[in-house]
């Protein structure tokens, strides 16, 4: 195995690249790989930072790698990006952030503290994903590549996985739940007997869950640069919305700021001997540079640039070994 410290571009095990190349050469379709391995794609979230992951998924699709995975995991924005890959909408995964979501109809800080959510999931689910980027949620029911969506139970803030849902309505509800932060994006979403909120609150990057679920190889797409993962931001003030969340439930504000919680999984991402790895192969891709995008950024130029950075990151790391 070949490992390197966390650095812009790639960190981890080149065995993941070898498996991707072998599967591409074999030419088998999604869900038909019989090489004895289980390859998981884990997509990080973070609101509009998801543009980086969107660009990465676009590059995976262009490289012909969209059907090489046995399962796809995602929290919050990462679940939406993962859905795009599973449904064959790789290009849309990148374009939707800059073209459709970087606007006040979707995110408007002036709505904070009013009866209208600052982040309008209604606009995303009932307008963008119906008119601009039509999405057939029922296609996830029969997808040969299962989607695993992380949500957080509102009552005790524990993470759970939603998968194998019976119909499109259930999948749409799951996607709303994984992106819902109280005060910012509306009330908890009831599915079954429980109420659920943003998956990133409970688990912003479910790499450990994928490994515990039997994945032998994991490709993890991050939405923060190596510097952002290993060093606190220059402006480390707790935002007003996070302080307000803490008044609802102590600790919820910090948990919702998944920048702090990404740091908790760094040892898993960087240490090949980590007990949760148990001999599995893990490759992590981070944006090679920052464009200044944060969770609630609506600067279209920055968001579009982030998608380009993500695309280039994956192309430069994966294209040479896959094409070899």
TrEMBL record:
It holds the Pfam family Patatin. PROSITE patterns: PNPLA. It comes from the Bacteria. Transmembrane segments: none annotated. A motif (GXGXXG) lies at residues 45-50. SUPFAM superfamilies: FabD/lysophospholipase-like. Residues 41-211 form the PNPLA domain. A motif (GXSXG) lies at residues 74-78. The active site is at 76 (nucleophile), 198 (proton acceptor). Keywords: Hydrolase, Lipid degradation, Lipid metabolism. This is PNPLA domain-containing protein. It comes from Pseudonocardia kongjuensis.
